[in-house]
Amino acid sequence: MSRTVYVNGEYLPEEEAKVSIFDRGFLMADGVYEVTTVLDGKLVDFGGHAKRLERSLRELEMDAPCTMDELLEIHRQLIAKNGITDGTVYLQVTRGNPGDRDFSWPEPPVKPTLVLFTTAKPGFADSPLAKTGIEVITVPDIRWGRRDIKTVQLLYPSMAKMMAKKAGVSDAWFVEDGFVTEGYSNNAYIVKNGQIITRALSNDILHGITRAAVLRFAREAQMEVVERNFTPDEAYAADEAFCTSASAFVMPIVKIDAAVIGTGTPGHVATRLREIYIEEMRKAAI
Ligand code: PMP
Asked: Do residue 179 and residue 46 come from a single domain?
């Protein structure tokens, strides 16, 4: 069924939505994005996503296409027009269409391009994968040095996903200088002797909105959180492993490369954090 999508001020059937071939998002990957989860027809942590979007735009000296209140209204309109109960809203802002291809940013700036669309994922908080856990492989992290900016340069993460698929698993964890950075589209964690271990925030990883919420809930539940680098070998020997993202919530990991993690079934910490996260986010959704 055709969706209603949003492009530069208009709500249109997806077949009629158009962006210029000169758009810098298309030619230069000069754009940023956010994916916000919808549960029960409401937005999960919209405030967190809006803040990160503003930061991504600021870091790239890109104009915001509208206010965050206007963005919230567009999200809500799309959820209503498409009858989304559970799913996601994808948002992308690019530096716009300067009318030709040029490495320099347009001076003065042109109007940013703003695109949003929904994806319905009925019942996705009850993913069967969360009950079995997923398997991951490790691959070298050869991405650029500003992974804290949520840009649409997703070619290497796509290649990593294909490497995972070829290896018969669903996910890949990136490794740089001997340490795990993050997953191809999620943040990475291990649990050892009751400690939840995850890499500290820096330019090396995306500052996950789900990561921030999950670490807050973990601390509130008196779980010990340690933000530090960890190696693949430590991960192989961990009691548990899991990843977090807006669309996967907290996802247990039961195998990393050839190593079965813990008992090979979802761990207690990951399972509990998933329950708390979904419960709290349902309550706070707007
Ligand atoms: N790291 C990377 C590289 C990602 O692409 C994502 C998801 N976009 C995340 C982490 C998780 O971020 P969030 O919890 O905000 O979805």
From this structure: no
